[in-house]
Amino acid sequence: MSRLPHPHSAHGRIERLHDFTSLDWCQDLLSDPSITRISKRQIPDQRDDVSNTLFTKTLFTDDALRAFLSMYRPGRTEREYHDKAVFTGTMTPADASVEHNYHVKQESKAEEVWSAIDPDTPEMYLLISLGRDVDGGVRRLHGGVAATLLDQVMGTLISYIYDNTSATADLNVKYKAAVTTPCVLLCRAKVVRKRGRWIESVGWIEDGHGKVFAEGKGAFVMNKNVTTAAAKI
């Protein structure tokens, strides 16, 4: 049975998923059993906080962003906690209550670190099929679109892990090679650091065979008005 979602959106637009299924490396990725979630872009109802209409409407054409799939691969890596708080000795019940309240307050401040080179660190993938309407130079992907794709894959990963929205605070992109359009790209992202609502992530844009076109580092701030569920890491 196919793991692919139905190509038709609620608003009549069609994901050109055959752009992916016609490529062996995409087929290998889509059949990877370590990937636990495959989703197409959503056409959201009217919301006050997030619409993401850049991807779900503006770029959703046969000549721009033809097809889009997000995939999540959970990892097995334990988080490293950089918390210097140390307690020694015997606690009275009153001390225990104070200690508990202290750790509840400090829990969101503890720094958590993951390795970007560890294959067991959780990872988000985006499969992207692009046409010619996102060019900068002739048959060359616009650099701003590449930066947007990196921002999207990193933000999508954060939203999935923490069940929360986030705002981009910083984004640095290193361009390594030109992207010829039309094309199918693989965008990847991993979270590498979290402290409170501040999250740092790294991302890559590749051709599916290991060639890297661009790499990025981003910092994001999660929405403080949303109660987050337990992280999926």
From TrEMBL:
Domain Thioesterase: 141-197
Source organism superkingdom: Eukaryota
InterPro entries documented for this protein: HotDog_dom_sf (IPR029069), PTE-AB_protein (IPR052061), Thioestr_dom (IPR006683)
Protein name: Thioesterase domain-containing protein
